[in-house]
Amino acid sequence: MKPKVTMIAWNQNDNYVVTAVNNHLLKVWNSCTGQLLHDLVGHADEVFVLETHPFDSRIMLSAGHDGNIFIWDVTKGTKTKHYFNMIEGQGHGAVFDCKFSPDGEHFACTDSHGHLLIFGFGCSRSYERIPDQMFFHTDYRPLIRDSNNYVLDEQTQQAPHLMPPPFLVDVDGNPHPTKYQRLVPGRENCADEHLIPQLGYVATSDGEVVEQVIGQQTVDQDEQGLEPSILDGMIRQLQLQQDQRTGADQESASSGPQNGEGTPRRG
């Protein structure tokens, strides 16, 4: 096999260069002389993640498609810590990216199964208040383009940035309880009844009918004949405000100087 370099990184003070080779070895080089100092052995598949510690020049992190995450001392060429990303019932998960926190005491990794792995000192109590699976209900909704080539949400025909804050759901699209919905920016102070999404059935592009979070509806609204969905009502209100602003801008432009009288020129 012809050796190929898959990733390269300098350590924090640039004295060392670490290269990942497709024979699963990491090599530590003197950046001034080019001398090979250490071969770091441990990975069993290609490595595409090399991350430098933010202030400790001795520490380098590596992660690869074999699911292994290593913390190395590049000055000694030794292994400091090791973690294997084993997923129960699915084998190992390839690690695609890793980043250190600014203080250097934590690092986070993402794997091929969509997991966010957080390592560091202390306890995990602060992370236990959020569910294991978090998606927005709009994450996989299709988009379309209008005649002006602007992007619109296919279901509501609205620009995505004008839509209300989405709901948090699990991987199967089931909404999380209201206490988790308050974690979404824009929903912190909503009443409980506004945090219960409405489930409905929609047809996918393949013709399959699936259950999906559509909007929100209450019994009182049904009895009073109000908007069938608070989400839709908010979207219409935002669109109306935008149309009013656009009309006002056009009116002010049309009522500008006439008969060739422009704005005074600067002397």
TrEMBL record:
One of the Pfam families matching this protein, by short name: WD40
Keywords: Repeat, WD repeat
A GO biological process held by the record: regulation of cell shape
SMART domains recorded: WD40
PROSITE patterns registered for this protein in UniProt: WD_REPEATS_1, WD_REPEATS_2, WD_REPEATS_REGION
WD repeat copies, ranges: 1-39, 40-82
GO cellular component, one term: nucleus
Record keyword Repeat present: yes
Transmembrane stretches, start-end: none
Residue span of region Disordered: 239-267
UniProt biased composition (Polar residues): 239-261
PANTHER family cross-referenced by the UniProt entry: BROMODOMAIN AND WD REPEAT-CONTAINING PROTEIN 1, WD REPEAT DOMAIN 9
Protein name stated in the entry: BRWD1 protein
Primary gene name: Brwd1_0
